[in-house]
């Protein structure tokens, strides 16, 4: 399937399983891949910032993280069938790494958060090898890159916030030839550490995670306004 575009921003219409299958092929061929989550807010930002748009469009997989992307695809009779969230994609990739014996490295967030996420994930996913981690406040970047190289990891998850984490990946991919899969994961370490709770499965299944989070954090209203703005612009673009 070809990638879809919304307001000039690419989206990959693949399911979790299809991405994992394709990644397995790319890893076998020695190729590096990047995964970036796309939602209406990020699309709106990309239309104001050409650097962000370039970062998204140059990624290997632009996963449809927001329900707005799924709705936009339906409006256009596209092929996006379901949300592929960043936090769940990370979970699938961790299980894939455990199954295939690939080492994993975590970079970002506060020390307590990333360390706790590491410990809880190792306890919950059999055979998972998290071969190293570093918090998001490392000053010596060259030492960090050397640590990642020496770890032998094949998958790297970066939690520095968007687009900072994607810019970091773009700037350092060539220096990390051992890493075959890069994913910017935002607040996923907070979720896996237990510090932040996700919406109940009921909300997630109906694509209403945004509503649950808004009820918990009313100050998010300005961010949530990106959804109707995005859908209106997609409709007018037709």
Automatic annotation (TrEMBL):
Its EC number(s): 2.4.1.187
Enzyme class, spelled out: transferase
GO molecular function, one term: N-acetylglucosaminyldiphosphoundecaprenol N-acetyl-beta-D-mannosaminyltransferase activity
Keywords for this protein: Cell wall biogenesis/degradation, Glycosyltransferase, Teichoic acid biosynthesis, Transferase
Transmembrane segments: none
InterPro entries, sorted: TagA_TarA (IPR034714), WecG_TagA_CpsF (IPR004629)
Coiled-coil stretches: none
Pathways per UniProt: Cell wall biogenesis; teichoic acid biosynthesis
GO biological process: cell wall organization; teichoic acid biosynthetic process
Catalysis performed (reactions): UDP-N-acetyl-alpha-D-mannosamine + N-acetyl-alpha-D-glucosaminyl-di-trans,octa-cis-undecaprenyl diphosphate = N-acetyl-beta-D-mannosaminyl-(1->4)-N-acetyl-alpha-D-glucosaminyl di-trans,octa-cis-undecaprenyl diphosphate + UDP + H(+)
Cross-referenced Pfam families: Glyco_tran_WecG
Family from the record: Belongs to the glycosyltransferase 26 family. TagA/TarA subfamily.
Record's function text: Catalyzes the conversion of GlcNAc-PP-undecaprenol into ManNAc-GlcNAc-PP-undecaprenol, the first committed lipid intermediate in the de novo synthesis of teichoic acid.
Protein name: N-acetylglucosaminyldiphosphoundecaprenol N-acetyl-beta-D-mannosaminyltransferase
Organism of derivation: Pseudobacillus wudalianchiensis
């Amino acid at each position: 399937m070809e990638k879809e575009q919304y307001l000039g921003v690419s989206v990959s219409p693949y399911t979790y399983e299809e991405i994992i299958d394709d990644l397995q092929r790319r890893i076998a061929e020695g190729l590096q891949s990047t995964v970036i989550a796309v939602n209406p807010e990020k699309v709106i930002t990309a239309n104001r910032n050409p650097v962000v748009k370039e970062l998204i469009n140059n990624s290997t997989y632009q996963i449809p993280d927001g329900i707005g992307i799924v709705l936009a695809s339906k409006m256009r009779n596209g092929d996006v069938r379901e949300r592929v969230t960043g936090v769940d994609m990370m979970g699938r990739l961790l299980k894939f790494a455990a199954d295939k014996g690939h080492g994993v490295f975590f970079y970002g967030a506060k020390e307590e958060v990333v360390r706790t996420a590491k410990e809880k994930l190792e306890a919950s996913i059999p055979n998972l090898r998290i071969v190293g981690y570093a918090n998001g406040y490392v000053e010596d970047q060259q030492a960090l890159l050397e640590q990642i190289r020496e770890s032998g990891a094949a998958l790297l998850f970066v939690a520095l916030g968007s687009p900072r984490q994607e810019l970091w990946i773009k700037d350092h991919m060539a220096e990390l030839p051992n890493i075959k899969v890069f994913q910017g994961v935002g607040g996923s370490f907070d979720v896996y550490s237990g510090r932040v709770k996700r919406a109940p499965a009921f909300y997630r299944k109906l694509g209403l995670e945004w509503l649950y989070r808004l009820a918990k954090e009313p100050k998010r209203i300005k961010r949530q306004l990106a959804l109707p703005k995005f859908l209106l612009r997609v409709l007018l673009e037709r």
